[in-house]
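User: My instructor asked us to take a sequence, write out its structure as tokens, and then describe one feature of it. I'm not sure where to start. Here is the sequence I was given:
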Amino acid sequence: MGFAIGQLISQIIGGAIAALLIALIIQWATKKVAKFKPSYGMAYKSAFLGTVGGLILGLMLGFAFGMAGAAEAQQGGLILLSMIAGFLLQGAIYGQLLKDESSISVGLGKGYAIAGIQFAIGIGILVIITGAVLVIAS
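Assistant: Let's start with the prediction itself. The structure tokens for your sequence are:
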């Protein structure tokens, strides 16, 4: 149990650091989708809560699958389920927390669009990093 708590704390710290970059992506995506640019503080708060919320949700799903006796072969499905659930949670958080100057939130649909843009950019960064590592390793 102590290992799991330590792992969760390190993931929260990592989420706080990652949210520094994600906030910039959220600002850009919100400007494209909702036609306004939220403050960096608002974008960071949304990014941090979305990231940490997704991590905690994934941890809870992992515990639930583990307690249900999920086999190692089912871990790919758990990862996919965690990604989908995390995306839905992030979109909902963005939809509620990102607000324009008149304090009107962007709404669920635009929140999901912003989360989708963030997800696409994140996958692009992951592909570039993976490709660079493979080139360096060969």
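For the description part of your assignment, you could build on this observation: Helices lie at 2-34, 40-67, 75-97, 108-137. Try explaining in your own words what that tells you about the chain.
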